[in-house]
Write the structure tokens for this entry.
Amino acid sequence: MSVVGESYLVGLLGEGVLPSLTPPLHEREADEQGLRYLYRPIDLLAVDGGGEVDATIARVLDGAALLGFNALNITHPCKQRVLAHLDEVTASAAAIGSVNTVLLADGRRVGHNTDVTGFASALRDGLPDADLGHVVVIGAGGAGAAVSAALLEAGASRLTVADLDAERAGALAASLVPRFPAATASGVSPDVLADLLGDTTRPVTGLVNASFVGMHTHPGIPLDAGLLRPDLWVADVVYRPVDTELLRAARAAGCRTLDGGGMAVGQAADAFRLITGAEPDRERMRAHFAAMIQEGR
Ligand code: NAD
């Protein structure tokens, strides 16, 4: 295959990023398109031996710009902290205070958030007629913020964010309300989930797990499976494993489900488009993702 046009150098900054599937997703799609594209994971703990995070972010951004990187993807625990190191941030990323893609060009650092668009496209493709009347999001961290913004942008009329740290949930809801005056958003403690999901007068229509519960490192389910009803759609952002305990319980209860693979592919595809200007083949990326999961990567 002949390589045409510009070349691209990209990195992924975060903790424990070496096994991430995002670099091979980008590189394979670039190969398919005949682009010269290298994508390297940069483990936060390997820089400065795990020193102060803000200093490390600054060092990596400076180094990446100096070495001619086109972009960095940013992941846990840097998505919020990286904002202080940027020249410009898109309105959508600034609104949730979280950036997962930094474009480096013309001496400037511009932050974007493709977790928001990635979840939006996954929901559109995977559950196209999902009722967004009242959606409960569990987890108010970076993923919860991205999912919540995507749901409100997609037209959710009522959003409840539940987090063990109820203050964090309340702060996220309060930060979203001004952008979506037609919707209502509130933050609660997970203790009230039983009452919320049992309320038939203003029924919850959809549920998204945006906490890390269900990951292979944090096995389990973030709510009592007995609360799941067949008229509820259920999505998970966790994708290691793709088939989480929550999704299995939801299917057993008769719910329609959406796994975290769609968002993982969507965020990668949107970042690829921002970095290269080329339109990725999302189906091809989805198939590659599924194959890597199948291989146990
Ligand atoms: P985070 O640590 O910033 O936030 C997680 C939040 O969940 C915390 O506020 C925590 O208090 C809350 N929480 C934990 N257990 C809970 C429970 N039982 N009930 C209610 N709240 C609970 O983490 P994050 O960066 O937001 O990531 C969360 C998950 O999302 C991770 O598993 C990550 O891999 C996944 N993620 C997936 C994608 C994707 O593309 N599919 C993208 C981003 C993140």
About this structure: The chain has two domains: 7-113+263-294, 116-259. The domain at 116-259 is CATH 3.40.50.720 (Rossmann fold).
